[in-house]
Amino acid sequence: MAVISGLSTDAFSAEQTGRFLLPLLRWLLRWASPATLVLHHVMIRKGMHLAGFGILALLWYRALPRGTSGWRERTALAAFVLAAGFGVLDEAHQLLVPSRTASIVDVGWDSLGAALGLLGRGMVRR
Mind listing the pLDDT tens digit for each residue in 37-70? Predict the structure, then answer.
């Protein structure tokens, strides 16, 4: 959660990440138009929402009390609620950072990441 909060600061705003990601993408995708490079930049940023909150949900799943062995639906639901709830808090935090914009859409990306992480865990266990 501290890592996610750190990534929600000015240092990781779209403008800041664009300073190093866009030149890297321009070098990797020499054929790409400026609009395509911006799209890839956005995709990387949204992918970080998925990955970060997927990992957070898995960590919550592991940290919560164990009742039985195997897949625990209630624990998974609690881990999802905690991760998605933190997504809401993270976006609220971004309201206080001038260079960031809070977005309910990003809460959706965060929640989707949490759900995918837990679904992946459940599928691996079966």
Answer: 999 998 998 999 999 999 999 999 999 987 767 6
How high is the pLDDT of residue 43?
Answer: 92
User: What is this structure's pTM?
Assistant: 0.85
Distance CA 101, CA 74 (A): 33
3-state secondary structure the chain: CHHHHHHCCHHHCHHHHHHHHHHHHHHHCCCCCHHHHHHHHHHHHHHHHHHHHHHHHHHHHHHCCCCCCCCCHHHHHHHHHHHHHHHHHHHHHHCCCCCCCCCHHHHHHHHHHHHHHHHHHHHHHC
Q: Position of tokens 């989707």?
A: 112
